[in-house]
Design goal:
Chain lengths: 307, 358
């Protein structure tokens, strides 16, 4: 029972983890992108459509990440090159992504992923370590998407804290003029990380439509993009901490199905992740330590001319 | 090429840039329609016809304009304080919920009294729903975009729960719906449209005066420009934010009341119909000015109604209208750059060129 809940929490937490990581590196570059929900939806429909047509999992993954990047590019162009307000640009991106995914998805509603793709994303037991009691079954008997997401989280943690490029990125988020003076190409860094962030959000959305559900339904993300933005705050801009944040919320979102015998209305249980998100935000902001504070230039545009 | 900040821009130039942006967005959307295999001009024309082509359709469109204007007014007050209230959707739902409680349980009250009570209940419901994120913001500095949005989902699930559970009409034969309102809880009509349009016109006038002439309106403006300035000048910033948000959410709550009472005649979980989200666009495009909210909301109501029409006429999904809306938004946001900056050829390297140090 417990093993099953934990295992399912990882599955439910995977789209959150990918989107959280995507938003995390975007915010590290000093850009607050509120378009996560939109990018996830664009990725979800592109992944689904390509997976459906080509009956090929790779096409689904490529489509999801490219379309997520494309959506992020609109945001990047507006906020970096045209220096628009980041909050409004991000909100517009969400509105755009919601509309686009529902438009492209009209003919897919209720359609199911082909077996070829579903089989590709079946859980794969990793020899030996999957035999460790509890942990083995939970962590090492999952589909490759889950493996990819938590390995990526560890990789991004090392990238941000241990490599020169990662430290440059942090410098841009904290103090762009100093980073500029040190010769770091600010706009290039911002563009690259915003695009990668978009790709990850797209992949997160596609996990829902291609693996987890795997049937197309409108608004398949149901607010997960916003929970991901909250999880970035919860994880204090640290990829390692975002792993357990995402899985904790994954657990919350499935708990309803698991305690059905208690006879609590599903609609009331559906509120749970959203209420907990608010509670978590309150507790995260109570902690005023320096380590857990957002990048200093977050949501402020950078103009060299106006330094 | 490089850019320099404009000292000032004439109203005419700013208008020209913004209209170019809107035309640009229509051209790009037109290309999109073209690739779907339709003639963009035909589609635009039939959208306009679908929205404004007959008295009946105009009435339908006005039924969309009313909630859009009201919701935009509400959201505008929050946006003026740079409080990003994207919880209009939930505030509409809660206003509808509070008003419906009285409509369903006190239908024997005289009509004017019941409608007045529902109006107040709608304001309180929406105001209460906006108060929570406002309180959390001033007390704990939580990010209001996320909290207001989470409140949307909580409200949506709450009403779904009531609709499928405790409030379900036993006479609806297993169909999950809440009972229809009695006549005493239905907004009267004038010229074939529920009197919400009169409330909306009054609201536009009152809020314009309130923002420009009252002390509180002034405080809202100062808080939005700089919280530091507001603090120095003795404005109690937290109180202004909380009060402003109660008004902001309260106006959205009134929308909920008008929709259940004037349009739907009952409470459902899709009573807000996305107005809370569309109003974010209309509010921003109108530059946070009540006078501009009216034409922008009319345009967007036309897009929504016309979008529904082309769905039947051309089998283009209704969401195509959402895409056109966000294109307009992208272009207008982007065009702000050309209002604030101008691009000049870089003459630093040209021989004998004047070096322009900005």
């Amino acid at each position: 029972m417990l093993v099953n809940i934990l295992k399912a929490s990882l599955v439910a937490g995977t789209p959150l983890l990918l989107a959280t990581l995507g938003e995390l590196i975007t915010e590290k570059a000093g850009n607050l992108n509120l378009g996560v929900e939109g990018m996830m939806l664009v990725g979800a429909i592109s992944g689904f459509a390509l997976g459906f047509y080509f009956q090929n999992p790779y096409m689904a993954l490529i489509g999801a990440s490219l379309s997520g990047s494309f959506a992020a590019l609109i945001y990047g162009f507006l906020t970096i090159t045209l220096r628009s307000n980041q909050v409004v640009s991000g909100l517009s991106l969400t509105i755009f992504g919601t509309g686009l995914s529902s438009f492209l998805g009209t003919n897919f509603v209720g359609k199911k992923m082909p077996v070829e793709v579903i089989n590709f994303f079946k859980p794969i037991e990793i020899p030996l370590i999957s035999k460790i009691p509890i942990i083995g079954e939970v962590l090492f008997n999952q589909d490759i998407y889950v493996y990819f997401s938590y390995i990526l989280a560890v990789f991004l943690g090392i990238y941000l804290f241990k490599t020169r490029k990662g430290l440059n990125l942090t410098a841009i988020g904290e103090n762009p003029s100093a980073a500029d003076a040190a010769g770091i190409k600010i706009d290039l860094y911002k563009y690259i990380h915003i695009l990668i962030g978009g790709a990850l959000c797209g992949l997160g959305g596609a996990y829902l439509s291609v693996v987890q559900v795997p049937t197309w339904q409108e608004n398949i993300t149901a607010g997960r993009g916003w929970i991901a933005i909250a999880l970035v705050i919860f994880s204090k801009w640290n990829p390692f901490k975002s792993i357990y944040g995402a899985y904790l919320f994954g657990g919350l979102s499935i708990i309803g199905f698991r305690i059905q015998y208690l006879n609590i209305s599903q609609n009331l249980l559906n509120m749970l992740p959203y209420i907990v998100t608010i509670v978590v935000l309150v507790f995260s902001s109570l902690n005023k330590s320096k380590e857990g504070s957002p990048p200093k230039s977050l949501s402020l545009p950078y103009f060299r001319e106006e330094r | 090429m490089r850019m320099i900040k404009r000292e000032r821009i004439s109203k005419k130039d700013a208008f020209r840039i913004r209209s170019t942006a809107i035309i640009g967005s229509l051209i790009l959307s037109g290309l999109f329609i073209f690739f779907l295999g339709h003639n963009p001009l035909d589609v635009y024309l039939s959208m306009a016809k679908g929205a404004f082509g007959s008295i009946y359709r105009i009435k339908d469109t006005i039924n969309i304009i009313i909630p859009l204007i009201m919701t935009s007014l509400g959201i505008m007050i929050a946006f003026k304080m740079k409080f990003w209230n994207i919880g209009g959707e939930g505030q509409i739902l809660m206003g509808a919920l509070f008003a419906s409680y009285f409509a369903l349980n006190f239908s024997t009250l005289p009509k004017p009294i019941l409608l007045f009570v529902m109006f107040i209940a709608g304001f309180i419901g929406g105001g209460f729903w906006a108060f929570i994120p406002a309180f959390l913001k001033v007390k704990f500095q939580t990010n209001e975009t996320i909290t207001t949005l989470m409140m949307n989902y909580i409200a949506l699930n709450l009403i779904t729960y009531l609709q499928y559970g405790p409030w379900r009409d036993p006479q609806s034969l297993g169909f999950p719906k809440i009972a229809n309102f009695a006549d005493s809880a239905t907004l009267p009509r004038l010229f074939g449209i529920h009197i919400g349009w009169i409330i909306t016109i009054i609201a536009v006038v009152v809020i314009t005066i309130f923002l420009n002439k009252s002390k509180f309106g002034y405080e809202i403006k100062v808080v939005g420009e700089s919280q530091d300035t507001a603090n120095y000048s003795g404005i109690r910033v937290n109180r202004v934010i909380i009060r402003g948000l109660i008004i902001s959410g309260g106006i959205c709550g009134i929308v909920g009341m008008m929709e259940v009472s004037g349009v739907n005649g009952t409470l459902t979980n899709h009573v807000s119909a996305g107005y809370g989200y569309t109003a974010i666009i209309t509010t921003w495009l109108s530059g946070l000015k009540p006078a501009f909210i009216i034409p922008v909301s009319t345009l967007f109501a036309g897009l929504i109604k016309g979008g529904g029409f082309i769905q039947t006429a051309y089998q283009i999904p209704q969401s195509a209208a959402d895409i056109i809306q966000s294109m307009i938004l992208f272009f207008v946001i982007g065009s702000e750059f050309f209002i604030q900056y101008k691009i000049v050829p870089d003459r630093r390297n040209a021989k004998g060129g004047e070096v322009n140090v900005s």
